[in-house]
Amino acid sequence: MPTGVLEKPLQEFDELRNQALRDLREVMSAENYAGAVRCAVRLHAELPDKSQLERNVVLVAYGGGKDSSYTLAFVRAMQLILSQIHGSTFRMRVATNRHAGMPRAVMENIDRAYRALDLFGDPECELLLIDGRQIKTFDVDEPQAADVIQRNRLDILMTGHRTAGDARPTFCNACNLSMVNSFGLAAGHDGGVDLIITGDSREEQRDYYLWVSRLARKFGLQPEPGERRGFKGFLSALNNISQAYFTDIHGDATSDLVAEHAITTDVRTGLQFFSIYDDTAYASGDHWELLTQFLQFTFDDLAFSFTESDCGNPALMAHLRALKAERCHGRTYAEGLGEYVEFAVSLMHKKEFPPQLVALVRERYDGEGGAERMRAAMDAYALDAYGLTEEHLVTMVHAPFTEKGVRLEQFLRAEQPGLVADDVHALLGGARADAALAADLERISGLTVDQLQVLYGSSLRLPTLIPGSGELIDSILDGDPHKQVIQTRHTADGPVVAELISGR
User: Is 93 part of a structural domain of the chain?
Assistant: First the structure.
C-alpha cells in the first residue's frame, strides 16, 4: 500500500480536532482556558499510560444540566489540548443516567452539546446512556425504558406515602442512589476506566465518603472490614444502604424489586477521582455565551425547574406543596405554590444563579393565571412522565394508609366520603377481602392492595426539626442543605407555625 494512503485521513482528523479546539477557545474566557491547560497537564501526570494516551479511559458523568454541560466542555478542551501537545489523547467516556423525570428537552440539550463539541465523530469519545441497569450508546431518540418508568413511579408513590409527599425524599432518595449506581455501571463497563473526572472539590468528595460511612455505621450496614476502602468500598456501603432502604420502602416480600435497586461494585480496585474544581469557575454567568450560544443550551419550561436544569421533578415538588395547602390545610393552591416558590428562589440565590434565570422562574409562577397554568402543566407532566394523576398525588400528600391508617378518617371525609373507614381498615389489615373496595383504592392511589398493605404496616415519617432522630428513610438526607424552616399555616385562619420544607 503506497505511503500516505492512511496518513491523509489521520491528518484530516487531526485538523478537525485542532479546529474543534480553536472553536472552543474562542468562547472560553482566557482564565478558564488557562485553567483547562493547567488541568490537562495535571491529568496527563495522573494517567497510567503516558506513551499511548489513547489507552487511558476517563469517565465523565453528564446529567445534561447547565453545570455538567460546562464541565463536559471543559474536559473536552483538556482532551483536545493533550491531542495538540502529544499527537494523541485519552479516551473520554461520557455517561448520562436517565430517569423518568428527565424530559425530552434534556436529551436534546445533550445532543446539541455533543454536536457542538464534535464528540460524535471522534473515536476517542464514547457516549453512553444508562437506563436503569442497561448501558446503551447515546441516541437522542432512544425511548424511555418502560421498566425504568414503572420503577421510578413506584418509588415515588411508596416513598411519598411514607412521608406525606415531603419533596426531597419522595423524589430524590431513590434518584440519588440510582445516580451513584450509574457511576459504578459506567466505571466498570467494557474493561473499566482509569480515572473518574469530577467537578467536586476534595472537601466535597470527602464529605460524600463520610456521609455514607456514618450512615452505614449508624444502621449497621458497613461492608466487611476488608471491603471498605476507596470507591469500591464506597459503592459496597451504598449498596448495603440501598438494599436496606428499598426493603423498608417496598416490604420484605419484594426481593426481586429490591434487587433491581442494587448498586454495582464491579469497578477496578483503587479507582480514583480527578477533580477539576480548582482550575475552573462554575457560575453559569461566567460562561453564558459558551453555554447558550456555543452549546445551544436551552432553558426549557419543563426541564428547567428552580435549581435544576435537567429534571422536571422540582416543579412537581412545588405542585405537591400547593396540593397539600389546598386539600389538607384548607388554604388555596396558589398560597402553597407561593410558599414553595419563595423557598426555591432562596436556594437559587444561595447557589448564585444568574438574575435572568431567577427572573425566568418567577415569571412562570407570578401574575394572573400563573398558578393555574403551572398546575395544568404539572398535571400533564406527572401523567406523561410517571402515569400519575392529580388524584394519585392528592392521595399521596394525605398519606391516609400509612401507619395503620392513622390519617384515614380525615382523608375519607375530605376526599372519599363514599368509602367507609372500617371497611378500608379491614381490607388493609388483612381481615377481609373486598374486590370492589380494592379496585377503588387502587384507582385513587395508583397502588395495588398488596402495596397499600405494606404502607399500612409501615411508619409515617413527617419532617422533623430534630436531625438524626429518625429511621433510615429520614437519615439519608440528614444534613442536606436543600431544606429550610418556613412560617406557614395548617388551616386557612389558624396560627402561624414553623415547618421544615425541602426541595430543589
Answer: no
